[in-house]
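Q: Okay, next protein. This is Tyrosine recombinase XerC from Candidatus Lloydbacteria bacterium RIFOXYC12_FULL_46_25. I've checked the sequence twice, so it should be correct. Can you predict the 3D structure?
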Amino acid sequence: MEILDWKRRFLEYTEIEKGRSIHTVMNYDRYLTRFISFAKVKHPEDITYDIVREYRLWLNRQLASESKRGVPSATLKRRTQNYYLIALRAFLKYLAREGISVLSPEKIELAKTPDRELDLISTDDLGRLLASPSGSDLASLRDKAILELLFSTGMRVSELCSLSRDLDLSRDEFSVRGKGEKVRVVFLSDTAKDSIKDYLNKRTDVDDALFIHIGRGGEKGLSKKEGSLRLTSRSVERLVKHYATKAGISKKVTPHVIRHSFATDLLQNGADIRSVQALLGHANIATTQIYTHVTDNQLREVHKMFHGKQKKDK
């Protein structure tokens, strides 16, 4: 069987057996198609270490994109290059599982990348952001509920947009389906719960989505719209950006920045890293550990304040 047939089988396996999202499968397809086009091999057994090495050099010299004026941008970031290599390693691992004699995936090392820097906003900025939607109209009530829910749960924006309006608000928790179709429990603060109740009480439509497009006509125009009213991730990103500007925050603020704030708030108030991992829905603890860099600064101040104090007092 030729490599393109094996690629198709691998993508089907990734989607069905591994339970990866369509978005992940599409990315794997794109990454592997690029590799196969470069390598010019017809069979998986033809993939050699030298081909992979040449591919890595080629990737390292590729431009990320071109600007609107046609001016070349910077080369692909190391982190982006690693996405291509991760897809290739997963493909080789699958082939080996199927009994095909291929290059060992362990021989493909990922490029070293600098530690991720978190985009964070201060506690004061966060407070102003959450208080920005102050009206009593449906759009303002919706936006207030969105911001409060993002901070209360630490949900990804895609998870928030997939919610239905039949949430049981008599409880302080509910389940969400995250990456890899994994289900986890998230928890509602009283403020978030009250904000959602106020928003739902104002709605007059029958759409199943929790958060919906409203438009200039407000609630009166909802009955005239056809199809699903469900809000998209992009719409929520624009909404957060709008309120960040309104709150006078100069930094770029996205739904993921609010997720960062949720995680760091937990850690700074004494939560353990494993609990934060579960609340965020991270499959790997290493992903959660990026937040410890923030709390390290707090620990440094504690060390300065208390270490050796008894000795100095003497």
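A: Here is a summary of the prediction. The beta strands are 173-177, 183-187. The radius of gyration is 24 Å.
Q: Noted. On to the next one.
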